[in-house]
Amino acid sequence: MLTRARARATNQHIFVDDKWNDAYIQTKDEQIDMLQAQRVLKSWEEDHEHAEDSDADDSEDDDRWISEDDSDDEEDDDVASQPTKQKQRHPVPAATWLAGGGFLENVGWTMMAAGIAPMLTYALANQCSQRRRPARRRTEWPLQSGSLFGTLMKAYTNLLTLAVVVCATYYAMCSRDVFYSLFTRPFSVSLASLQSARVCQASLLSGWHSCVGGSTSFSAQVLLSPDCLHHSVFPAAVLTVMTLLLANFHRFWLKALVLTTTLTFLLKHGITELEAERRAAIEIFSLDPSFAFVNERIFVVIDGQNLEQGAEVAWAPYWGGLQQHKVHLVPKLYASRVHNGGVFVTFDQLNEFVPCYRRRPVSNSDDQIGYKCFEHLRVRVKDQRSVPGWSLLTPKEDRDL
């Protein structure tokens, strides 16, 4: 079957059936378009009817005619249902705006809001002004920072710089001995060695009085004397330098110097303290012998570090003891004193025993307290019959025992 366009192109006759087919196809196309239009129109009408129904429900009570009797009944119903509505009423807006949450929650969020809210306000205001003037450099946070982290980093660095400068000023002017001890053993400095502000002021002024007020002739020779340099000129120079540092606490070079000094100080003295603790720690390196027989009295030589003469060494069973339980739950047996680098002990059961060391006890009430056990070292207790050839070397009557 040829279409009308192809028939005309080939100069062929168009039959009636071809015309009918073209009309049928055109009719179906029109029906498809109508169905599509009806579907769109139907969805639009449903949305419009839904909106009209909601508006009609709201205005239904206003348009409905109500007699006087009916109005009285409805008023009575409203009065009767008023307590129920009051019970279901939500909290007043003032209460929800002014109070809420628990104690810790309020404390935490209040501190966060007090610290962050000013910066957020500044950033929003600065951002609005920059939108009006786009040619301006975009710094949305205080202290010429591009983010909140940068602002907080600069603020905390400022606090650290001020704290370091103030502490250095105090130690240098008021407690020179404590200041010098910071560079040798910083963690040994106690709070009792720190002086109060009144004592610091008195010690600072006493140097000037002894240097200037105590001398009758005020000259350069007096100022350059060792006593004056030590008691007056040195504190004045320190105070001048620290004042200049406080005035420049926001400079990059001072912050870099403080951070480098602080990190070096903490690293150096941290390593020093760890090394001191390691050297002062009690250690046991080896035991000789490493095995023993049951009911045999032996002398165990202990090779260790920081072991004291007269200290106490006990033995904790490994199998059924330290292998299953914690150290403080395992009984300490066969306690004896360290004498000439070792201890005498007699084991009466087959097991492996771990040495436990403690300093000389003060009282007898803490028998199981204060021990330090070394689980990597063990003394293995054997039976004499486990020795190869024991039956050949032992008489028959001894073997039957």
Automatic annotation (TrEMBL):
Region (Disordered): 44-92
Keyword Transmembrane (UniProt): yes
Stretches that traverse the bilayer: 107-125, 146-173, 232-249
Superkingdom, natural source: Eukaryota
Listed Acidic residues bias regions: 54-79
Keyword terms, alphabetized: Membrane, Transmembrane, Transmembrane helix
Feature: compositional bias, Basic and acidic residues: 44-53
Protein name: Transmembrane protein
Species in which this protein is naturally found: Pythium oligandrum
Organism lineage: Eukaryota, Sar, Stramenopiles, Oomycota, Peronosporomycetes
